[in-house]
Amino acid sequence: MSEPSSPPSAGAPRAGGPLNGFSFQQLLLLAFLLIAGLLGVSSLRALHTLEQLMVQSRQGTAHATALGTAAQSLNQRGQALERAARQSLVLRDAPLRRSFDEMALEALGILEQLRKDGLPEAQVDEWRRHLDAVKELVNAPPERALDNERLVADEFVAIETLNLNIAQSIQDINAQRNRELQDRVEASRRNVTHQVVGVIVLALVLALALGIWLARPFKRLEGAIRQLGENQLDEPVVISGPDDVRRVGQQLEWLRLRLLELDADKARFLRHVSHELKTPLAALREGVALLQDGVTGELNGGQREVTQILHHNTLVLQSEIEALLRFNAAAFEARQLNRRDTDLLALLETQVETQRLQWQARGLKVQVEGPSISLPIDADKIASAVSNLLSNAIRFSPKGSTLRILLSRPAGVARVDVIDQGP
């Protein structure tokens, strides 16, 4: 035969998909790394988002502090400007006037910064108008100093009221920015939650897909082993999947070919034994028949008795040889099971009906008892076994006795008892 006599080597050529070149252990490691990578990326993105929120929170706090400080400085500059303006009106001192101008520039710088940070333009423009009015009053002729001082006081009262409004506007700006930050935090939380849930679902789908893909070769291995155990050797064993699983499939294919070779050798041996035994036995029977027919001369009583013994023993020997050959053939076929759902009770009743003439000839009564049980069995082989048991029971039962066949199912298994009254 052309089948291999040695198992395939580990360096057999690879076939299949791109992942089939990896071993089962490597694929498990790859799946673990993929899932861990997905979870790691999700964690890093969540950490990055959290860091951004922390930075924005720190910036918002610093900005709110800066706005509050600027508002406080503007209020202080307003008070200092009021003192400098009144002193300048009364004393007409140049250094006081320069000090007033410098503080006015500082106040305008603070206003410009507040405007950039979101202070309404109307409040900035109103503050500037009051400051310009104060400047005009300070620069007015000296003879109107008393009236101008009263007007300057009115302007600074308006500026003080405006500073209170500016402080309230800054609080509103900070509150709005806090709400915006909270909205961003909530949006980021939802995004991170969606990302984590998505990654977990993706990881589960990936794990399930890899699990199913890796489990398929083992199911095929199980089926191939079951076929080999039932001596179903016609279908080749082809297992795809991881590299080490495919090597196991190659070993099973080699085993299948070896079993085919062994079955062929056994069949040849049985044919050879049958020929070698039956040929001399046939010659012996022919010789005994010639002696009994008196071809070599008339036999006396003793010689005829000897030939009868020889004839009987040759028949017994032929029966034993045929029984041995039938036993080997039956043992060979017993491994080939053709399972299908079969009603055991109906099968027993059929066998009893088949041998009705035999048990009626001996005056026997045959009773089949038990529930209807359906199981996946090889009906032909079970029927053959039941037929042999029933035939032996009929042969050895006393005439007129009762033969019982009991079908039961204790502990989840089917049991058949053939009970006779023989020795």
Structure description:
The chain folds into 3 domains: 30-204, Four Helix Bundle (Hemerythrin (Met), subunit A) (Up-down Bundle), CATH 1.20.120; 263-334; 340-419, 2-Layer Sandwich (Heat Shock Protein 90), CATH 3.30.565. Helix content is 74%, strand content 6%. It has 9 helices and 5 strands. The protein has a 3-stranded mixed sheet, covered by helices on one side. Strand 4 (402-408) and strand 5 form a beta hairpin. Helix 1 (24-91) packs antiparallel against helix 2 (94-116), helix 1 (24-91) runs antiparallel to helix 4 and helix 4 (145-229) runs parallel beside helix 5 (243-292).
Q: Tell me what the CATH architecture of the largest domain is.
A: Up-down Bundle
Kindly report the CATH topology of the largest domain: Four Helix Bundle (Hemerythrin (Met), subunit A)
Tally of discrete structural domains:
3
Helix content: over 70%
Task: Identify the strand order in the major beta sheet.
Answer: 2-4-5
Give the key terms.
Heat Shock Protein 90, two-stranded antiparallel ribbon, Four Helix Bundle (Hemerythrin (Met), subunit A), 3-stranded mixed beta sheet
